[in-house]
């Protein structure tokens, strides 16, 4: 019985955490980071102030959670960094994972919040970069380095290669959404964009394999 109650409490806590993060993201986007209070977030999430303060004592802590969860959601290390051995397969897995991640409305909202508030709150941009973008980028860089070490790719500069590969995908999936409210590519369009990014990267970096 105690174990069941404990599991129930954990589920409730997680549900409340998700509600808080969703409410905060919406309020930050519509009213700005500075224009949103923790009290208003608690009201939007339908939780008490004490519940919110217990999980997130400051707005900075809450924004940190938003960034971390946005980048980690549906992007496990196993997908973000596949095992070396098949460069095409690895790039394809990474590419589709990245397209799904940055194509979510929540990710677009997060970037908009950061860009809008950057002049007054530069720490938000730093948080977005260090807790979100950089760990994901580093994972892809390490994967390319592992393929280079295995002899499957000739990637002397894995940092540049990762930047090029992810940039090709983001340039189609994410950045048009920042300016075009009606930008909504189909799943097949996104698959094609990922495939082309993979082919371009293979053409540039794949090692010649014996027939």
Automatic annotation (TrEMBL):
<keyword id="KW-0238">DNA-binding</keyword>
<dbReference type="InterPro" id="IPR050109">
    <property type="entry name" value="HTH-type_TetR-like_transc_reg"/>
</dbReference>
<dbReference type="InterPro" id="IPR001647">
    <property type="entry name" value="HTH_TetR"/>
</dbReference>
<dbReference type="InterPro" id="IPR036271">
    <property type="entry name" value="Tet_transcr_reg_TetR-rel_C_sf"/>
</dbReference>
<feature type="domain" description="HTH tetR-type">
    <location>
        <begin position="14"/>
        <end position="74"/>
    </location>
</feature>
<dbReference type="InterPro" id="IPR009057">
    <property type="entry name" value="Homeodomain-like_sf"/>
</dbReference>
<protein>
    <submittedName>
        <fullName>TetR/AcrR family transcriptional regulator</fullName>
    </submittedName>
</protein>
<feature type="DNA-binding region" description="H-T-H motif">
    <location>
        <begin position="37"/>
        <end position="56"/>
    </location>
</feature>
<dbReference type="Pfam" id="PF00440">
    <property type="entry name" value="TetR_N"/>
</dbReference>
<dbReference type="Pfam" id="PF14246">
    <property type="entry name" value="TetR_C_7"/>
</dbReference>
<dbReference type="InterPro" id="IPR039536">
    <property type="entry name" value="TetR_C_Proteobacteria"/>
</dbReference>
